[in-house]
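Collaborator request, handled under Task 6.
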Amino acid sequence: MKEHLDAAERQKSTGESIPAAGRLTFGEVTETYRQQLQASEVRPNTKAYRDAGIKLVFKSWEGVADLNVRRITSKTVEDWLRGFKANAKPHVPRGATSGARNSTGASATTIKCALDAVRQILDIAVASRHLYANPARNVSVSEAARRMVKTVRRERAERGTIRLPTRPDFLRLVEAIRRAGVADCRAAADYVQFVAFCGAHKNEATHVHWSDVDAVRGTIRMRVTKNWRTTDGPDDCGDAATRCPDESGTSRRGAG
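Structure tokens returned to the collaborator:
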């Protein structure tokens, strides 16, 4: 409660210490946050990231929807973070029956995403004067999150690094896909090779056309990036360019 008392003293000195009347739950202020988020002009990927954070909070924090925001302190947030990490389950890749070998349950990105959601939501409670200060932005919470992230990264390192296939191994994998004997197996192989050689994300690769390929410069124009900006790919995309699928689903090299 110390952060609330300190903030109250600061606001008394400015004449803005009148709190808002009524009870406000975390679930109610979350709904307000969702409405403001959807009406904002932030990028679609940012909206999806913040919405994912909200889902993580409600999934991992039991009873938070009905919790009065005035009962949320920095210690409450720290206890939730510790429980979030302790109860997290390893990520199970699609089609797999068990968790990934290197998964620690809650990655550094997941922890930051969930905590950021709590901070954004409680900022609204502060703005509406239901809180004097945002407990999720307290120094102790930031330190607890930083220690947790360091622990996650250390645990991941102790589990061993991911073994990437050698170039011959990768080419054999691509060839196996190409000879799978199912519909579009050649296009699928070209897609895998294209993404691997140019380093594009799935959404980026989906929007590439032949007109985006500059064979002279050896670059590929990405119409859509993760930040929704147009950019040029690296200067060593020559191999990837020959595997760029056209509108019929085949590459130029594959079509020959």
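The cover message to the collaborator said: "The chain has eleven helices and three strands. Confidence is low (pLDDT under 50) at residues 10-18, 245-256. Please let us know whether this matches your experimental observations."
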